[in-house]
Amino acid sequence: MLHIKCPYCGMRSQNEFAYGGDASVKRPELNKETTDSEWDSFVYLRKSLRGKHLELWHHISGCRQWFKVQRDTATHEIFKTLKPSEDI
Amino acid sequence: MSQDFRLDKIGLINRDKKISFKFNGKSYFGYEGDTLASALIANGVHLVGRSFKYHRPRGFFGAGVDEPYAIVQLYRNNETDPNVRATEQELFEGLEATSVNCWPSVNFDIGAINNFLNKFFPAGFYYKTFMWPKSFWYKVYEPFIRKAAGFGVASIKHDQERYEHKYEYCDLLITGSGPSGLASAYAAAINGARVILAEDKPRFGGSLLTSEVNIGNQSGKEWAEKIITELKGMPNVIVKNRAQVFGYYDHNMLVMSERINDHLPKSKKYSPKQRLWYIRAKEVVISSGSIERPLVFGNNDTPGVVLSSAAKEYLKVYGVLVGRNPLIFTNNDSAYETAIEFKKNGIWPIVLDTRSNPESEIIDEAKRMGIDIKFSYVVIAAKGYKKVKSAEIAKISEDKKDLGKIENLNCDCICVSGFWTPTIHLASQSGNKTKFNKEIDAFVPNQPKQEETTVGSANGVFNLEETLKKSFEVGHKLSKKITNKDNKVSVPQVVEKKTTQHDKFWCVPLPKGKKYKRFLDFQNDVAVTDIELALREGYRSIEHVKRYTTLGMATDQGKTSNLNGLQLVSNVENKIVPEVGHTTFRPPYTPVTIGAIVGREVGKHSKPTRKSPMHLWHEKNNAVFVDAGVWLRPRYYKRSNETLFEASKREATNVRKNVGVCDVTTLGKIDIKGPDAAELLNRVYTNAWLKLPVGKARYGAMLREDGIVMDDGTTTRILENHYHMTTTTAQAANVLSHLEYYLQVVWPELNVNVVSTTEQWAGAAIAGPKSRDVLQKLFPDINVSNEDLPFMGYIESNLFGVHARIFRISFSGELAYEVNVESDNGNFMWEKIMEIGKEFEIQPYGTEALSTLRIEMGHVAGSELDGRTIPYDNSLEGMVSKKKDFIGKRSLNREAFIAKDRQKVVGVVPLDKKTSIPEGSHLVKDANAKLPNPKLGHISASCWSVEYNNPFSLAILHDGKNMIGEKLFALSPLKNKSIAVEIVSSHYVDPKGERVRS
Ligand SMILES: [Zn+2]
Q: pTM for the whole thing?
């Protein structure tokens, strides 16, 4: 079970959190033309990489904040956690 | 009955307390402090089971966790546990146990014929023998193998025992209380660290309980006792016996199973049988010791062949002799401790040492005591079927290839020692890439991946002085990192006997013409020939060899079998062991009961049960409840002998005719506040929200980004910047997370707050033509006429002094209102509604009637919004704004989503107007077409229409728009039904929606 540092609450056990997918995905702006392939890659295409992965987690059984986690998908090592507004 | 194998003056058992127990129906006695194994051996019982494949007789091999044979079915306090190790099970009054793996009995075993048919059971025998014909597998092979292979029988009764989970944090977790564990725990504790010391056995001390050493002028055992007593008295230390740390998981989370009451006839009151500890440790010190390695020779699985360390433990801890005429077979010095112990207790052992002329302090001592030692000698085979009667022995040449003349030697047990294998399971589980240590011919931990340090013999250090020195150092160093303190303890003086190099020889060659089975894995019946066969057949990877032969599988997990297997593979392949590598160690290290894993989360405790504030009223009024997500909701209110069908028909009819009231507390409610609240709703829902006036509600559907409908519900503008959103019961939590995601991650510029208020409001839906009359009487202060409170209107008022929110919204399709009051007033509201509604013939209605009402109105719900449908499919395309953008809009352009023959919700009526259509039925053109019959759609929801008094269903149908009036068949192979049906509009009742506006 991972030990994750919520940027608002501190270290907590994984069972307080929900995984929220790739954090590097950026939603196309509203009311802006997007090509089929742009939209397709936003909705469906995700990397399944081995190594450092920036991802979203949601502290559902805690402060209910979403935040970013940089984690190694092979070793589970967590390098950094950030607020959604912060960049790595 | 006498205990022929119990000695008088030695052991740690309590001879004042006799304990009686039964094994395979026969009564015996032992003493407090015995294990089932030690008590049986004391009584001369050595036959405890049959082996897995060949059903060869099985006795005891170890004295603890390493035991591969002595697995029994245990009976305790009217419960039974399968697969309990007799070497770990402590004796208690009234204990009963039976053998597993023997059918019909341990002495006469049908499976033993496998032993004579063993051509039938070589490596991979499952794969080869029992594959064809396929139809034989379930009926013939599997039941036979299961019964003959035995293993214990799991109880089918509900387990009455209590199991608990505990979460703990500490600075240092130390796994094992041998010398290395005690020293590191003590050093860390003195230095102020929060320490947990876990010992698997009932007694602390590990090897110090049985070794002849001296620490700080005391015996090893006395020193261990002193340290434990001190540790127990320290507030920063938790000391646990009967506690096995069995799993090392990510981020230094370890799991430990504590057997609190297993050693007692019955669990103490208010105390769980077992407790599972989830421990998050800053640092882990692995002090799990080492397990003696077997030597491989003919029939080395015969009862009476035991590990030499186990023989010593039975002697020194339990005062029990594994035999009165012992033969000791070794390739190293440690077996001499066993020989000396036998001799001290008046038993004359014979030692066979594979080495030609080793010299050390302990060998000298054995010689001085007059013990008969034969150097360059090996055991070729054990003789005897159910117990060792003699041994074939021979001299072996210096190169270990040639055997001398075979001699016969009488003995009643053979104590073997093939040197020691460090217990590296936990280190390996944590991700440590272990390395091979040639000195000891075994793997030891290498570079740690997590915060773990291995000390003592688990790290391949077998010298006590060095172990203590290192362990004190490790305890001090790790604790200093955490506590920043520098309190040191001095390392005590150690007196121990010096030992010399062990022999790398471990597998005795077969003499010409002999075909003895030489076992590597005693639990899984894997012999030398099996491994050789697997290699001949082309298996190379050790992981494949393991699976093909079953080497090191099951509860053994390579404890005694691993290294010998690896060495054999490397010999045959002419490789060195590290090239072969070892198989992955996986948790659990030892078996864990399902009860401990589940803990308290059984039955009603497996998930929370949420009840509405009106729950007691429902109960009193004969509600039959149904699980709706985590909620309990009334399904119907039973009157006299009514069935579900009759009651729900009555309730639904009464809504259509008079008025009904339904508890809608469970609907998800989200309070939305902030200047950008309207903008958020406008982006989340498919329809337009910016112009919704205060005091008005609107129905909305929200999509996922892929265009699939996620949820629907109404949202009401309470104030300028304050909205009240409702969601379906099932999606409430997901919708909140969804909103939070967009507000926090995607559009943080929106100034909006959302919070769940589901539990803050109790809700009642009042529906039916007479609902306005009821409402007017409930709220005499306001006017609720169609003009003053129109469809989708909202108003606040007081209900006999209680503040209430009144929404004119309808799920039933009738004129209807939903009243919300603060939860504490829910029951008051409900009783008032029932009281006032009496003159209008009000009846409560449950979820079944609610479904009927919505289905015949064609209102889509969870069964249509099933995660596969878009707005069009649900006939919600009219609510999809063309002007503005919203979540998921772009996906609605997808080719499949705009196809002319896209699926759509329709109504379905059976032609005979009698036969109800099972939900899930497939709609097909031709009921008798060849399979696979092309599916046009499926029935999503079915009811008995109270309006037309015939069955009615909703379906999601291919090209549904153009199918109205078509005749199809609804097929349900599960219910064996084929029903001729007509496709009609999904809006079966009141298609223009006049009633809700009346
Ligand atoms: Zn948090």
A: 0.88
